[in-house]
Amino acid sequence: MNNAPVGVLGGTFDPVHNGHLRLAMEMATALEMAHVRLVPCARPPHRGAPTASPGQRAKWIRVAVSIEPRLRLDDRELLRDGPSYTVDTLASMRKEMPDTPLCLIMGRDVFAHLPKWHEWERIFDSAHIVLIDRPDIETQLHPDAQATLDARAVGNMRALHDSLCGLIYTYTPPPLAISASRIRELLANGESPRYLLPTAVLDDIMDAGVYMTCESHPATAANT
Ligand code: ATP
């Protein structure tokens, strides 16, 4: 098999920012992916409810990726009832793309808590994981996450093209210390996050008045 993988970057995207977008671009280029899908979750099971609505978060991603064919919005989690379990999202993508390697992209901060996710081991039945080092966030891996990494790690990205799922590849893109929580904090304090996120997204946030008055929820280490 030599099929270009599709990257899957899940997250809260509250809001999408240049850290997410640049990361997706780096992945598409360095790992020779067909494209990378940004997949906003509706109801993250392991953290507080997002401040912006699902519709707003999806709209901002759509605006942000509209100029780049290698990046796409995938809003299937917003169209589904119940919690946004990554294992279900990947299983549904696997059905649609039976012959395409899928690469779930996640920060090491998120991978650290993977064993708390719903049916986390089944993720490897549908996808590889590409692990991103985030030097701005310190993380201690859960022992089961460490054991999984030891068992599934590959050192060559070609392996991600040669099989459909089951491997872990670590990649360290040039770091961008940008987080959605920092952006929410700046807005809540009446300061500007300009240049941390696309201008069109910031303009829409300002027009809608999102994050300005509400307390931004604190970042937690775990995700979907
Ligand atoms: P928050 O600050 O609200 O926790 P976040 O900016 O970390 O949000 P998420 O939407 O939770 O963004 O992240 C989605 C995915 O993108 C996660 O796997 C996260 O590790 C990764 N990510 C977010 N920001 C960056 C960044 N600056 N560099 C690399 N990866 C990032």
From TrEMBL:
Q: Can you state which reaction this protein catalyses?
A: nicotinate beta-D-ribonucleotide + ATP + H(+) = deamido-NAD(+) + diphosphate
Q: What class of enzyme is it?
A: transferase
Residues covered by the Cytidyltransferase-like domain: 8-185
A GO MF label? nicotinate-nucleotide adenylyltransferase activity
What's a Pfam family in this record? CTP_transf_like
Q: Which InterPro entries match?
A: Cyt_trans-like, NadD/NMNAT, Rossmann-like_a/b/a_fold
Alphabetically sorted, this entry's keywords are: ATP-binding, NAD, Nucleotide-binding, Nucleotidyltransferase, Pyridine nucleotide biosynthesis, Transferase
What pathway does the UniProt record associate with this protein? Answer: Cofactor biosynthesis; NAD(+) biosynthesis; deamido-NAD(+) from nicotinate D-ribonucleotide: step 1/1
Q: What is its EC number?
A: 2.7.7.18
What is the purpose of this protein? Answer: Catalyzes the reversible adenylation of nicotinate mononucleotide (NaMN) to nicotinic acid adenine dinucleotide (NaAD).
Q: Which family does it belong to?
A: Belongs to the NadD family.
This protein's name: Probable nicotinate-nucleotide adenylyltransferase
Q: Which gene encodes it?
A: nadD
